[in-house]
């Protein structure tokens, strides 16, 4: 357990916090209209913070001191920001609103994206049509791991080579184009694994349960192990790689943004930075002649 910060003399227990968390839970449903999964994360973070502050009704000063302590720990930027957001929501619930600063994420250059040849090698080392269907979807669609798990048979538009992504990240729906080669693989997969339209595209063999993200991570690791590729390969790397390849081949940045489902163009722009070869070619094509 994390270090307890003594902001008051009373010692709290998880049991003494639960009643207030139930009220906080209802507040987030009624006034913030958040998803159940999001509310549970907020409640978990706030419960931990209240225990560490030793107060069910912390003052703004107590929360500020707690955030100072949080920033001094070796937490990730996202975890620190989640704590700040959670305490802000709880402060609103207590009718003592406060706004904390946000730690900026360091934008890393993608150095280890897969080359087109490496993607081809990975697909070549799949052994079953199911493996090939999953890996091809990762490669050609750029879908997030969870989005692939959520795909249903009815979400595939075979006539238009498209996928309908329902409630992706941020509860957004979008249409994703995929190559005809990938559509053909999905068609062959569904010929072998016949499923009703309303059923999830990928399910377990024994219990026919919907695939979880860890299953796809494990599959990617297993297939890559058959190759001589030494990079660390994981499902989201296919998404990064596709974005870089699309931009390198001349795709419009807005088109890539729409395909990936990014809310902000700044998120998509990082793939320009990740592609120094394209930046160099653009410079060479458009630099003025001064001499």
Describe the model:
The chain is mainly alpha-helical and 291 residues long. Helix content is 56%, strand content 3%. The chain contains 13 helices and 3 strands; from the N terminus they run αααααααβββαααααα. The chain has helices at 14-32, 36-53, 60-71, 77-93, 116-124, 129-141, 145-150, 180-192, 213-225, 235-248, 253-260, 265-273, 276-286; strands at residues 156-157, 162-165, 174-177. It has a 3-stranded antiparallel beta sheet with strand order 1-2-3. A hairpin with a 4-residue loop joins strand 1 and strand 2 (162-165). Helix 3 (60-71) runs antiparallel to helix 4 (77-93) and helix 5 packs antiparallel against helix 6 (129-141). The protein is globular. Residues 1-10 have low confidence and may be disordered.
SSE map:
Layout: H1 14-32, H2 36-53, H3 60-71, H4 77-93, H5 116-124, H6 129-141, H7 145-150, E1 156-157, E2 162-165, E3 174-177, H8 180-192, H9 213-225, H10 235-248, H11 253-260, H12 265-273, H13 276-286
Antiparallel strand pairs: 1-2, 2-3
Helix pairs in contact: 1-2, 2-4, 3-4, 5-6, 6-8, 6-10, 11-12
CATH homologous superfamily descriptor of the largest domain: Intergrase catalytic core
| Apparent shape | globular
Rounded radius of gyration (Å)? 24 Å
In spatial order, strands of the major sheet run 1-2-3
| Mean pLDDT level | 85
Q: Helical element count?
A: 13
Q: Termini distance? A: 66 Å
Q: Kindly give the count of domains.
A: 2
Secondary-structure class: mainly alpha
What is the C-level CATH assignment of the largest domain?
A: Mainly Alpha
CATH architecture group name of the largest domain: Orthogonal Bundle
Oligomeric organization of the protein chains: single chain
CATH fold-level assignment of the largest domain: hpI Integrase, Chain A
Secondary-structure element pattern, one letter each: HHHHHHHEEEHHHHHH
For the report, how would you describe the main beta sheet?
3 strands, antiparallel
Uncertain residue ranges: 1-10
Strand content: under 5%
């Amino acid at each position: 357990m994390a270090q307890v910060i003594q902001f008051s003399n009373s010692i709290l227990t998880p049991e003494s916090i639960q009643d207030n968390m139930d009220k906080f839970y209802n507040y987030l449903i009624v006034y913030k209209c958040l998803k159940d999964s999001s509310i549970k994360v907020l409640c978990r973070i706030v419960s931990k913070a209240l225990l560490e502050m030793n107060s069910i009704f912390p003052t703004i000063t107590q929360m500020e001191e707690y955030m100072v302590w949080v920033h001094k720990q070796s937490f990730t930027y996202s975890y620190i920001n989640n704590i700040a957001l959670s305490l802000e929501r709880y402060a609103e619930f207590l009718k003592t609103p406060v706004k904390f600063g946000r730690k900026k994420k360091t934008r890393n250059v993608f150095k280890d994206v897969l080359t087109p040849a490496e993607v081809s090698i990975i697909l070549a080392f799949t052994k079953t049509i199911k493996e090939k269907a999953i890996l091809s979807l990762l490669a050609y669609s750029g879908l997030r791991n969870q989005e692939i798990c959520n795909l249903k048979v009815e979400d595939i538009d075979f006539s238009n080579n498209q996928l309908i992504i329902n409630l992706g990240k941020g509860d957004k729906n979008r249409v994703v184009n995929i190559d005809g080669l990938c559509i053909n693989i999905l068609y062959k997969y569904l010929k072998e694994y016949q499923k009703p339209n309303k059923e999830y595209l990928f399910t377990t063999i024994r219990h026919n349960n919907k695939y979880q993200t860890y299953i796809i991570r494990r599959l990617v690791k297993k297939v890559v192990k058959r190759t001589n590729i030494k990079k660390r390969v994981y499902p989201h790397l296919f998404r990064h790689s596709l974005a870089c390849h699309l931009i390198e081949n001349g795709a419009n940045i807005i088109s890539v943004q729409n395909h990936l489902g990014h809310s902000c163009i700044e998120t998509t722009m990082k793939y320009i930075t990740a592609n120094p070869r394209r930046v160099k070619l653009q410079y060479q094509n458009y630099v003025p002649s001064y001499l």
